[in-house]
Write a structure and sequence with these properties.
One of its GO terms (molecular function) is heme binding. InterPro entries: C-typ_cyt_methanol_metab-rel, Cyt_c-like_dom, Cyt_c-like_dom_sf. Keywords: Heme, Iron, Metal-binding, Signal. The protein is built from 9 helices and 8 strands. The chain is an alpha+beta fold and 189 residues long. It has a domain of 102 residues. Helix 3 crosses helix 8. The longest helix has 15 residues. The structure holds heme C (HEC). The site of heme C (HEC) has 23 residues, from helix 4, helix 5, helix 6, strand 6 and strand 7.
Length: 189
């Protein structure tokens, strides 16, 4: 029997390899026509290279944000990431990823951190043995409330880190993709 963490981690990596990052294999998702290039343009320094079922990825296949309307409108995954971050990470990392006396700012930490590195830390945790105060980042590999939304949380934090969105709840978001709901149901089972 493989642990839930192993299975979820390999799903995440399989998603990465397939360049889709959804929890479903690409074949299960309804085929969508590539949108015109203009629709891919985002505010912020990172530009999406591709969108599939409402999920944007950069040229390396890492999840990324799609922000429009002067920082007010975000893609669905950024919105979902905001909600999941607030529920699972805010207590230690502070509101809007700003950091606290206990845990570092993720707005800073995400600068230049790719998705695989991020996923590795969140799945396995991290412990700073050299700090005068013992700092522990818990391992979330068994926690579906985090693992089922890992690309979402990364996408949200990346938008914060890039300065593409400000603090607080995004004002507006793109529609919830049907593929998101399917993947969520499958993952949360
Ligand atoms: C119980 C408190 C706690 C919670 C909850 C928590 N973290 Fe952490 N996290 C920490 C601490 C403390 C560190 C610093 C550990 C270290 O330096 O070794 C850390 C480090 C990290 C790092 C590495 C930062 C760097 O500079 O390398 C990432 C990424 C991270 N956390 C993401 C998350 C995410 C995403 C969530 C929510 C799913 C989360 N954390 C929830 C306490 C927490």
């Amino acid at each position: 029997m493989r642990s839930v963490a192993d299975r979820l981690a390999s799903l995440v990596l399989a998603g990465l390899a397939a360049g889709t990052l959804g929890m479903l294999p690409a074949s299960a998702a309804a085929p969508t026509a590539a949108p015109p290039a203009a629709d891919l343009k985002s505010e912020g320094p990172t530009q999406p290279a591709k969108v599939q079922d409402g999920q944007y990825t950069d040229k390396n296949g890492d999840p990324t944000y799609h922000i429009t309307e002067g920082g007010k409108k975000v893609d669905w995954y950024t919105m979902s990431g905001y909600v999941r971050y607030s529920a699972n990470c805010l207590a230690c990392h502070g509101p809007d990823g700003m950091g606290s006396t206990y845990a570092p700012s993720l707005v800073d930490a995400l600068k230049g951190m790719d998705y695989a590195h991020f996923a590795g830390i969140v799945v396995g945790g991290k412990r700073d043995v050299n700090a005068s105060q013992e700092l522990v980042m818990p391992a979330f590999g068994e926690n579906k409330n985090v693992m089922c939304y890992l690309p979402d949380i990364y996408t949200y934090l990346r938008a914060r880190s890039d300065g593409a969105i400000g603090r607080g709840r995004p004002a507006d978001h793109e529609a919830k993709p049907a593929a998101f709901e399917k993947a969520e149901d499958a993952c949360m089972k």
